[in-house]
Design brief:
3 domains; alpha+beta; 12 helices; paralog of FGE (formylglycine-generating enzyme); 4-stranded mixed beta sheet; about 450 residues
Length: about 450
């Protein structure tokens, strides 16, 4: 479907109601006041007999369209960078041209399509068109749930649950995202309730900007309890683990000092705990939300579904331990971590780095990699993983362990994206206070057999 919501200057006295106006087609959207910066701006006009036969998509296809296409793509790239850096949405003009690109058959990446959906929801324009071009049902569901609690431009109220259900009815792809959406709002509602402000003590509170969290939660309750959607509890995906046999291990340390340790058999997470993993613990009311929501270069790291598979950051030792306990696991000890990161059972060797003794810049996210931020977990798997299969054991984010070093200090292993090669070895470690939270610090969990 190529339907747009009404323009800002929509005449409420027209025969169309506000709701029926949301069904205006793309060539009925009058946007002469566009904020687009395209080199050759595409004007959208209201249908008339003279222009009715023209297809607006032709402005982005056929002879002479290349400059418009290039300009629109540049706008989207700039808008996506602004969203990642400052969580700022683009204006209606960028939205319009982006949707026309899609309707004209041009490909956009996942991040750009997701940004167009967010922007369409914010302006209540082109929502069905944006929905029709989404390819990730889980991300679509998250963005829709987010729109129910995020005010629109100029303080407009969030999207009402009933409107989302109407879009679901009109979107042929809704079967793919509808149940994900229901699970998302079920999971998010307790956390939103926890973040909602307390009722004022005074009978006459001071004037303040309108808060939409309460009505949004009520809408969620109506949506779930009223039967508009089928209820299904979100299911935890089975986590991937690495199994390590018990026995005597001789661990290389600094200055070639060998530490002998006897370990019982255990399992340890193959990958670092992700943002999505930790978000489920928050939704369960067990883990606390980190005060810092961004990464080294992305302000919206915690709330943008683009980073679901990236490592969780900005958690102290207690936060990490709480999550692992909730997951039925625990933090690994430093020796357990080092064995999983470096030991090769077939040869009984201990490698300096997970993949071998020589440093390879192409196998790790360290300072020399140039990313300057965490990357998706398993980014270098399997080539950069240890012989036992543990990924991201050198760089990406440093990791808390259960090994203490004095009161209120614990060992951190693995190094991070800001460390040189010497700090990325399996033997390297740091000692940090338990209250340390940083955008380069994460964790993974381990467990002993029952």
């Amino acid at each position: 479907m190529s339907e747009y919501d009404p323009p800002v200057d929509f005449d409420a006295s027209s025969p169309f109601s506000r709701r029926s106006a949301s069904r205006l087609r793309i060539d009925e959207w009058d946007d002469s006041s566009s904020d687009s910066h395209a080199e050759e701006e595409v004007r959208i006009w209201r249908r008339s007999p003279a222009n009715e036969r023209r297809d607006l998509r032709d402005t982005f296809r056929g002879p002479g369209s290349a400059p418009r296409i290039a300009a629109a793509r540049r706008e989207l790239d700039q808008a996506l960078a602004a969203w990642w850096a400052d969580s700022v949405l683009p204006g209606p003009g960028v939205l319009r041209n982006g949707l026309l690109l899609l309707e004209a058959g041009h490909s956009l990446d996942e991040g750009q399509r997701a940004l167009l959906l967010r922007t369409a929801l914010a302006y209540r324009r082109g929502v069905l068109t944006a929905l029709s071009h989404q390819t990730d049902p889980e991300r679509t569901a998250f963005i829709l749930a987010e729109a129910m609690v995020q005010p629109g431009p100029d303080g407009a109220p969030p999207v009402h649950a009933e409107l989302i259900y109407e879009w679901a009815r009109d979107d042929p792809q809704s079967e793919a995202w509808l149940l994900h959406f229901e699970a998302e709002v079920t999971e998010t509602a307790p956390a939103l309730r926890a973040d909602a402000p307390l009722a004022p003590v005074s009978a006459a509170p001071a004037a303040s900007p309108r808060n939409w969290v309460g009505p949004a939660l009520l809408a969620l309750a109506v949506l779930l309890l009223g039967g508009l959607l089928f209820y299904r509890q979100a299911v935890h995906q089975e986590r991937e683990s690495v199994s390590v046999a018990g026995g005597l291990y001789r661990l290389p340390g600094r200055d070639d000092v060998v530490q002998e340790v006897t370990l019982d058999s255990y399992v340890i997470d193959r990958f670092e705990v992700t943002v999505a993993d930790y978000r489920r613990c928050i939704a369960a009311g067990v883990c606390r939300r980190p005060e810092a929501r961004g990464s080294a270069t992305h302000a919206g790291y915690m709330v943008n579904r683009e980073f679901d598979a990236y490592p969780m950051l900005n958690v102290d030792w207690h936060d990490a331990a709480t999550y692992c306990t909730w997951a039925g696991m625990r933090l690994p000890t430093a020796p357990e971590w080092q064995v999983a990161a470096s030991y090769a059972p077939a040869t009984e060797r201990y490698y300096r780095y997970p993949w071998g003794d020589a440093f390879e810049i192409s196998l790790t996210n360290g300072v020399t990699s140039g990313y300057e931020d965490a990357q998706q977990t398993g980014f270098y798997h399997p080539f950069g993983s240890s012989p036992l299969g543990m990924a991201d054991a050198a760089g990406n984010v440093a990791e808390w362990t259960a090994t203490s070093d004095g009161e209120d200090h614990y060992v951190v292993k693995g190094g991070s994206f800001q460390d040189e090669a010497a700090l990325l070895t399996a033997a390297a470690q740091q000692i940090l206070p338990t209250v340390t939270r940083a955008d380069w610090l994460g964790f993974r969990c381990a467990a002993s057999p029952r």
